[in-house]
Amino acid sequence: MLNKTRRFLTSLLPIDPNRRGECNRCGSCCKLPYPCPFLRFDDAGLSSCSVYLFRPPSCRKYPRVAAENLTPQTCGFFFVAPEQIGHRPAPGFEPAAVQVRTAEEPG
Ligand code: SF4
What we know:
Protein name: Fe-S oxidoreductase
Number of helices: 3
Oligomer: single chain
Largest sheet: 2 strands, antiparallel
Strand order of the largest sheet: 1-4
Radius of gyration: 20 Å
Bound molecules: iron/sulfur cluster
Strand content: 5-15%
Number of strands: 4
Order of helices and strands: HEEEHEH
Shape: elongated
């Protein structure tokens, strides 16, 4: 329940840009910590949400960050370390010039 509360509170934060993969409709996240009353399964065993268009941010963004991925065994999403994908600054990004002041210079 603590994890669910934390996911609810952090659900307005952005998704980790290092998240990869896609939902495979396993439905595992919809059972945390108990099965959601809106969870449905089709004949093939794939999950769906009966209120999909109105689902809360914590469901839309699951797993938002690696630390909140509570179903890594079945979830189709995964996270890569930045060094695995290489660091590429955003287009047009210029590092800020370093300004050094001495004590004698006026503010
Ligand atoms: S655990 Fe991952 S793959 Fe499974 S339903 Fe949730 S988001 Fe989709």
